[in-house]
Input
Amino acid sequence: MQCDCQTKVAEKLAEHVKAKLPEGFKDFDAKLKGYGFAMAGNQLMSPFMISYQGEAWVPKKNGDGMKRQKIDTFVTANFCPFCGKAAKPDGDQEAA
Output
């Protein structure tokens, strides 16, 4: 790709996930997995989904040391990443 959208999405997702981790986490490491989308003819197959996986060390709730916490989440979108049109057209909207 000629754009840096993948990098921007990864950075924003890292910020979002880190904000939800307990205070004091360390060694955060997570990556986008399977960044891509599928087309059927001229329509985007819905939903556009990107897996995000990794791990971080977080403080134990009792305050006694650290434990490894897995990160396993995903981002979905119901629109075309190129033109912004809905991935599943309304009943009266025809596919281009």
Observations:
- DSSP finds one helix and five strands in the chain.
- Residues 51 and 67 are 23 Å apart (CA to CA).
- The longest helix spans residues 5-20.
